[in-house]
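Homework help board

Subject: predicted structure for assignment chain

Our instructor gave us this sequence and asked us to write out the predicted structure in token form, then describe one feature. I got the tokens but I'm not sure how to describe them. Can anyone check?
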Amino acid sequence: MFLRNLWYFAMPGRDLKRGAMTAKLLLGEPVLIARGGDGAPFALRDICPHRGIPLSHGAFDGKEVECCYHGWRFGGDGRCTAIPSLVPDQKFNIERVKVARYPCREVQGNIWVYFGDETGDPGDPPIVPELGDRAPGMNEAMTFPCHVDHAVVGLMDPAHGPFVHQSWWWRSRRSIHEKSKAFGPSPRGFTMLRHPPSSNSAAYRLLGGEMTTEISFQLPGVRIEHIRAGKHVLCNLTAVTPVSDTETVVHNAIYWTQPWLTPLKPLLAPFARAFLKQDRDVVVMQQEGLRHNPNLMLINDADVQAKWYYQLKDAWQKAGADGQPFENPVKAQELRWRS
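My token output:
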């Protein structure tokens, strides 16, 4: 149903304090995410193997999670460390009791969880280039009532901007003009190669300096827009994480090196939320039509990125099923559309 052997954005790191835990439903699976006393996050399946109650209803002391039903305790590695009901002479090896553990990493201020069937090194979560360990200056998230595919395709749709995102501070229908962009394959996805940003996006002009932008997409649903403005960098990471068949969370993390943007964060946040809400509102309307199972169309060249997404998904799933290396189906080319 959902792509496996990939990292998924789980939550902003700042939302999880030391010694705290939280329950999440990710890819239809109950997941407990906690931050130990050492500051490192970990993720476990949020079900006690004893009687099935979610572990997140219990307590966490910064080292072990205790089930609220019978007090069974589990470490961050998922191994059972205590069963209070056992008496000393009862022979029961509690080390055999485990809760499934998910690889979990905090990178650049975001917590990612790996969903996979492999036992080897899952590699690194997506990283925004040129920012080191910098955390986002701003995080926003919004739940979309749709399957993950519709959220991802909407994310990479280059033609909806003047219609869905009409506003005095961004675009209008009168700004539509022909565009031509060069694309090439990149790890697990594709990249719109570096170019001057769109002239019909008014907000870009506020950054000042000579600007160029590069936009990359990678499976399972991560888009990184990397803007250079003079000596500074502004980056927008958007990650789409499925909750269930019919619900998806779109996370937006914005990074910047421009010092003057930081005090403006209270003013910028409403614009970011408004932008996400515009996308969500159109998805809500889309669901009215999709419930009738219509045949859908993808056209050239505006929808080629959507076609690539489905081709990438198929290639990734086939490689996993066949036990073969993934081969990127995207070929370098130039795409043209009006927006």
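Reply (TA_rk): Your tokens look well-formed. For the description, you could write something like this. The longest strand covers residues 232-244. That's the kind of observation they're looking for.
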